[in-house]
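hiii, so i know i said id send this last week but things got crazy w the move. better late than never?? heres the sequnce for the chain we talked about at the cafe, plus the structure i predicted for it. fair warning i was half asleep when i ran it
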Amino acid sequence: MVFLVLLLAVVFHFHRDTSLSQALSRKAARLEIAAHMQLGLASASEAEKSAVLAITDETSKTYADQSRAASAGIERDQKALGALIEDSGTSHEKELLDQFSKAFLGFQRVDKEVLDLAVRNTNLKAGSFAGECL
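okay and structure toks below
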């Protein structure tokens, strides 16, 4: 009887540690994805700015493509994070992801418009045209 109680205590102890370990692992995975998304946002923003400031159409297109690729990576991470949060996240995490998703949609709309204009190099062409008119 004592052996059975000890066996149950050991099993319960390791089972509880496994659950804690799994919970910490899931939390670490969510934090890693969120950090990756933050880096992606910084990369997309920097590439967008470079696309706008680029002197040649080719350079502008290269930076615009980099910005779009970073945004696509953020979307993939967002879906992965959503799945993890749906599986084991808190209601606060779900709310924060929902807020991010809405803000990111707005970012994407503006980003698309800015990158479309940047690739056309309208600032440079407008400046050249203004110079010719003077």
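btw The helical segments are 2-53, 57-88, 91-120, 122-133. thought thatd interest u
miss u guys!!
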